Amino acid sequence: MRVLVFNAGSSSLKFGLFEGDRQIFKGSFDRFREGGCDLSFEGAEGPLEQGRAPHADLAAAIAAVPGVLAERGLDAIDAVGHRLAHGGTEFTGPARIDDAVIARIEALTPLAPLHNPAMLEGLRLASRIWPDLPQVAVFDTSFHLTNPARATTYAVPPAWRDAGLRRFGFHGTSHKYVAQRAAEALGQPLSDLRIISVHLGNGASACAVQYGASIDSSMGMTPLEGLVMGTRSGDIDPGAFGFLQRHLGLGVAAIEAALYSDSGLKALTGSPDMRDVEDRAAQGDAEAQLAINLYAYRVRKYLGSYAAAMGGVDAVVFTGGIGQNSASMRRRICDGLSFMGLMLDDDRNRAPDLSDRAAPQIQAQGSRVAIVVTETAEQLMIAREVRAMLQRPALAPRPVPVAVSGRHVHLSEASVQALFGPNYRLTEGAPLRQPGNWVAEERVTLEGPKGRLERVAILGPLRPRTQIEVSRTDSFALGIDAPVRNSGQLEGTPKVRLIGPAGTIETDGLIVAARHIHTNPAEAEAMGLSDGEMVEIEVQGADGRGLVFSHTLVRVVPGTVTEMHIDTDEANAAGISGHVDGAVVPHVQAVPRA
Ligand code: AMP
């Protein structure tokens, strides 16, 4: 399948043509101005043409693309993908364009007034040029819609939040791509890794990718928050607005424009370009030296905070013009992080070979945290998303029985002995639907700083590690903040006290289990599902309140019975009582395991 990808801006148009993962053409029309723009074309084998073109705006540039491709015999295209900056809370994945989708994207313009309009215009123009081809929008924000409320909520008046003020995060396509690429390079499933992705380009952001899902990112409501950027400020005290208005008489529009366009490296040094800043710093320019220190310090703080947010980190991946190219910036950022097991190897860091989308590791021997450098490939990722969406087989509408899990524990042999006495064997009680699983006759008590949960069920058989699964409400009853995790992902989980008739233990392993579907290979194939993918499941509750559960992990294991597991909070929210079947929502595209 050949996919043409557009990244349209008010001053430039970038486009790429992909055959599978191979980029067969890359073009840009840059710096639109009266009389024309700059042009650059590259084929699969390297540069083709650079110079000037007569196109003075986006419409003229897009109109020229069919001719550019036809000249090179590349005009056979199967689909068009478009980068969209903002998809609000509603676009959790790519969207096939029709009038209704365009209207929904238009309605989001107030959230991204600088970016979405040109992208939307590009989308409209391309739909007119290729009316018979599927057009698909891929949103920078979608990847971050897995962020929990604690990461997305600003502590501001309810009326503001009702108006839509919340954190979104951007660069999602880049973070998703480099996290997948890093996992591939490390030879481990993305769903087993806690990765901090650091995209340092003209725009810059960091993202905590926990077991495949973004859980926080440094950009917020707008792409202004977070790291220091080329011309954007990054984090700044919101109190500055009042101060600037009272003391300098600046209005909101002027402050906002300065924070977007006249801040960051440009404000600190006069140049938004890190190469200039590094050169000047090396010549003794104190302002450039401060800018570099401040830039690295801000990134380092985010690395520390995201390691804390995920209870540890397995890999850091650097990308973007600065992340890819500046060995000294990577070094500056990583220095001082050995306390959390992150150590750079100077030789590997100096000149990593990034050709052919390589993702070399540059950590020192003995570093617990892997450090990966790779070029980002947002257009490639968009092409992949378009392909995945269009090639996905229609899902057979099969029912998925929903099972509601109350709080329970899985115990290790050692925990059983400590709680019930030496050589104790649990008594196998009622069997569960999954073959070989049962509820024990015994019970335990959970205790936290706020309270106790009595008579908690124990599920067998025994496991290598003790795992305690509670609902979010239970975690408040205990007074312990339990993270949402997949079963078995217990690194960095909090401790809780378990009380049995013969003893008490303090053990980690307290989680809110991430919702998931168990199924076997035959039924997975019949439903068009694959192991590790995330799907949406629609459930109609008995009280008429249905819910669509997003980000539901599919686990395909031979011998298991198809069943969706949710906890009691989720069941209550959906009004579920008694037996109910869910249904896979067909439009959601796969999140492949790396
Ligand atoms: P991007 O937006 O990803 O194209 O990144 C642009 C930024 O990368 C600019 O600040 C460039 O100065 C910076 N950059 C590109 N190459 C280098 C390099 N070799 N050393 C330092 N910064 C670089």
UniProtKB/TrEMBL annotation:
It comes from the Bacteria. One of its GO terms (cellular component) is cytoplasm. The keyword Cell inner membrane does not apply. Its main location: cytoplasm. Substrate binds at residue 83. PROSITE patterns: ACETATE_KINASE_2 (PS01076). Keywords: ATP-binding, Cytoplasm, Kinase, Magnesium, Metal-binding, Nucleotide-binding, Transferase. Mg(2+) binds at residues 7, 378. Signal peptide: none annotated. GO terms for biological process: 1,2-propanediol catabolic process; acetate metabolic process; acetyl-CoA biosynthetic process. GO terms for molecular function: acetate kinase activity; acyltransferase activity, transferring groups other than amino-acyl groups; ATP binding; magnesium ion binding. Catalyzes the formation of acetyl phosphate from acetate and ATP. Can also catalyze the reverse reaction. Belongs to the acetokinase family. This is Acetate kinase. It comes from Paracoccus gahaiensis. The gene is ackA.
